[in-house]
Amino acid sequence: MDIYGEEAEFTMPHNYLKEKAGDGGIPQHLIESAQTFIRDNTIEYAPYASDHITEIEQSLKELKNENDSKKQKEWMQKIIQHIMHIKAHGGMFDYDIMSDIASKTLTFLEDVEQINEDLFDIIEAHNVSIKLIINHNNKGNGGTEGKALDDEMKRVIGRYTKKYNN
């Protein structure tokens, strides 16, 4: 009852978004089909990751030679974008360690404000790590080698953060 002693009536508003999007989930057979494709795919990701590393190296070279802060930010965004691709796709192709290292690097780069030689060294360390993973075909968690690479990337980023108080 409301303050006038009358029964309150609730009116359910029309849900236009639900009407447009639908109210069902993804059909189970589509989920199973996608999982089968991912599990059984024969696409080799290493060449794609190598292409991203090449693009990062070229962008890094341009970044090192750039003095304009606006252009430096543009080159950094290109580097970040390629690392993001490696992070996003590595795990899908069973390169979990590649995704982990790229993720650490990406998280670090998104917060960096100073562009300097130490930053360049971290990006180069990322690239060397990814190349090693590709060359040794370290899939999954990368085993002992993968853990060593991942741990070293954490330490490198930690030293930079401590030095520059980020």
Order of helices and strands: HHHHHHH
CA-based shape: extended
Distance N terminus to C terminus? Answer: 58 Å
Q: What is the arithmetic mean of pLDDT?
A: 90
What value does the Rg take, in angstroms? 23 Å
Beta-strand level of the residues, as a percent range?
under 5%
What layout of secondary structure does this protein have?
Blueprint: H1 16-21, H2 28-40, H3 46-64, H4 69-90, H5 96-111, H6 117-135, H7 143-164
Describe the protein:
The protein is an all-alpha fold and 166 residues long. The protein is built from seven helices and no strands. Helix 3 packs antiparallel against helix 4, helix 3 packs antiparallel against helix 6 and helix 5 packs antiparallel against helix 6. It is extended and about 75 Å long. The relative contact order is 0.10.
Any key phrases for this structure?
mainly alpha, 166 residues
Short structural description:
By secondary structure, the protein is an all-alpha fold.
